[in-house]
Sequence to fold (1157 residues):
Amino acid sequence: MKKSLTIGTALILLASVMAGCSSNNDSNASAPASSSSNGQAATQPGTEKLNKTGFPIVNEPLTLTAMVQLSPAQPPEWNDILVWQEYEKMTGIHIEWDEYTAADMTEKRNLALASNELPDIFFRTRMPDNDIDKYGPEGTFLKLNDLIDQYAPNFKALLDKNKAIGKGIATADGSIYALPNLTESPSIEITKKLFLNQSWLKSTGKASPTTTDELYDVLKAFREQDANGNGQQDEVPLTADSLEDLILVLRGAFGLGNQGTGNGNWDLDSASGGLRFFPASDAYKELLVYMNKLYSEKLIDQEIFTNDGKKVLAKNEENQVGAFSFSNIVARANKNASDYAGLETALEGPNGDRLYTSARGPIGARGAFLLGKTNKNPEASMRWIDHFYGEEGIRMMYLGIEGQSYQKNADGNYEFLPEIVGNIPEGSSFDQVVSKYVPYAGGSLPTLTKEAYFKGGETEPAAKAAAEKLQPYLPKTLWSPFSFTTEESEQKQALEADINGMVNQRAAEFIQGKASLADFDKYVAQLKKMGLDDLQKIYESAYARYQAG
Amino acid sequence: MEYNPKTASAGDRLFDIAVYAILTMAALATLYPLLYILSASFSDPMAIVKGKLWLWPQRVTLDSYREVFGNADIWTGYRNSLIYLVVGTTINIVMTTMGAYALSRKDLVGRHALSLIFTFTLIFNGGLVPTYLTYKNMLGLYDNLWAMVIPSAVSVWNLIVMRTYFQTSIPYELQEAAFIDGCSNIRTLTRIVLPLSMPIIAVMTMYYGVAHWNSYFTALIYLHDGWRQPLQMVIRNILIQEDMSAMTGSGQSLMDQMLKAEGMKYAVIVVSSLPMLLMYPLVQKHFVKGVMMGAVKG
Amino acid sequence: MASGTKGGAARALLPRSIRKNWDLYLLVLPVVLYFLLLKYLPMYGIQIAFKDFSAAKGIWGSPWAGFKHFERFFDNYQFWTLIKNTLGISIFQILVAFPMPILFALLVNEVRGKWFKKSVQSIAFMPHFLSTVVLVGIVMAFLSPTTGLVNNVIKLFGGDPIYFMTEPSLFKSIFVFSDIWQNMGFSSVLYIAVLAGIDKSLYEAAMIDGAGKMKRLIHIAVPSLVPTAVIMLIFQFGSIMDVGFEKIFLMQNDLNRSSSSVISTYVYEMGLLGSQFSFSAAVGLFNSVINFALIMIVNQVARRSGTSLW
Fold:
């Protein structure tokens, strides 16, 4: 009996492998069948099936597959969102969504790309720029230039209006493979802002700082004069989620990042006008000296190197924070949100720079929408998405359907219906409630984000007010990300993994004081040894193309 | 002969004191962080972040558990994980025992070569994408039960450990005697070797079982449908937080979510490991008792 | 494949022993099939390391790139730092963490009180179930310079708080000791089982000979653990280049980077900017070659002790 048991399991195993094979044939047979049925519908009756303008987009029902990243606030079935149900009725196009959370997205996306099992549409899949540049020319994605010209009047109008968009989304040879997330809001484009505790300013008798020296005085007063009035020296004068966020709000005063954040650590040398890797500049050294002074006098959070958002929030809850850097107030200071306001003006640095450089151009994310090469209905797909780059579509994306989810108030502003957002049930959040109607939660959608419609953190009144005060001091030009050839981007990736890692490490060491700033030249020499000059060449050729393009 | 503390020598008594002292200290050092986690799961997340938690829950709340169990997928996750564990571990034990026994026999021609060939796969592999393509397109291991249990059917590590146990802990003469009695290999394995191997089988069951229970990567790559997802995948997705970089939602919502996730992080540990901790004593009794060789000789 | 030719040669030489033992081969057959189909079949993918993998062209159709990706890795400025940190953590792990479960099992085996024995074992077993995120989370909470338990004790005795997580020289210790805390009990189960398998008559004989507890431990318990421990040690050497990515990554910050950047975190950083299948395949293959060389050498040495993998 036991003998038969063992043999039995061996057989089960073999059978299972075989059963696996046969079920595999089934799935293989069914997968192409479904896509080819779409394909035939589109190709055989020709384009009569497709309406070139207006709705519906197609005269016969059409199904497209799409991969999308699900926000935790959203229903797990994307088609449960009101906007998608309504849009399907409008267009005649049914989308079969494949939803993945942020934790699974990278693996699932990479697997789809590498195994060439592509959905018709990559919709907010957080496609990295380098993957667009690599897989696009290889033929994994459809080239969109002609489709945009013919089927995307709204998006084309945006391209015509702002040249920076076209420069930012095209690959090195001018091809477009991805439609971006675009923004039209200073408060979003000014990515990190410095918020100061106004009641601490009052209790220490200080005015809102206008120079880096004044900021130092204010922070020092916060620490030394018991700004929170609890009799203990537990004040954390300046903090942020990370050191990077602090550098972002201070660097402009030292003239660093003078073309915005579009290309990371690169900007223009004001003297020569040439491309500059600013973490190797003297001005950067001055920034580090300044921040080292703040840190060593305990004016910067001593835990900044291991900080995160929760800790900033917790310290604010205890009224221990004097100033912090983030995109909005409420997500980091809840109980005492009303204490905070942004800077009155951009800080002026020791060399007279009054510039605010934690800002980017209109491109929020480059790879928000791509078409897989196996998509048999690129025209319909392009028409389908183009709606969301026009006024009505944008409103639909962010507010839903008039009368069902939003209304236009007497003053001309748009708002969600009070019965929807008026009483948010216990244990639920605003985002969860509105996500039954609109798909915007999670951001980075292929659309144009406008302040009038987007009801998120960055457009809350205090954040908007802070942005307005900084706006006059933004760089004249804000670069879009440069594009690189496949060869360049491969080399660049290897160099940047080393060099940017070293920059972050040394910045932390200099600021903390573990490394002496007398060694700054050694650090620059080290960057050169790691291949900074090669990286410079790559960026220079990309910059030349950018200027020409 | 039973141990009797009264008749024990001074050396033995000192030895005992040392053993108990060291183990008590180790147990306390292990227990404290575990209690911390348990308390954290019943605490207000803000209190945890603030560092107010020492031993007992702070601002006691069941919110984290309510949040975890509020997710309907938790129960399907439990059910799926249990199925993968039972089916997977059964296959593991049968396959591993068969392989380990064969490899332990000196009369298996090429057993050294086989061990080497098996071990080679522990170190070299085809990489994620080729493996995915092979499993999915050639072996049909995609989005079904088999995809969850077959890829991990035998662990080289466990196979060799079990083989070593068979070789060193089971007297070879016993097996020889069985052969002289005319037993086949399969009969020797089931009648002589297995009864003497309960401790190692218990351990293997536990190691394989825990590995199935804790694994999420196979599910991530080889499962597609939501209703098939094991508990670990459900949990992974419950804990997801919004990427805070830009335009993701309202500040208030993002903050709530961040804090909630902090509390749930601890609650899910309790929820997901409880079944394994409850099962542990069942397995444990097999290797605490030990075996008496004499009992099976006759 | 190698197994086929070897098996074939053996069959020609020893047909009778195989015929007699046919059921032994039947037993091992499913296992062999498993390894062939599920492990060896996908190994055609190793070629990606020598190619410029392009998804559109597929694995077979992608152009050859020779040793380009290996050179990129070797020429890397941090190459030796990565090797040093990776090996440093692995060797620390082998020296300090590896013996712990063995010691623990030996101690537990000496306990006669059933209740105590089971409780200690169960408690030690539990931390294995913590996810890496939670483990690192509580390590950081306990070691926090402001609110952490450890630093509060230090402050109580008048010391200055230590910034554990940002101190490169402490990184390896925190990594290894938290690993011991988490996995010692779980790994010890195997050794406890082996100890449980010892024939009780051996102990009885020793007691009659008047051997004390320490003597019995050294002369009966320890030798019975040696074969299993040797096997485990050989396996440890076979994964010397693989230091778990997730835990390191979660513990890493800009200040401890000089001792926390390891091969796996480096590959991750490269991949962050975009997928790099060929490069990560090359790094993976390099690791495998080193691991394999080590496992061969250590296995050869271990053979003298009478226990080896093959």
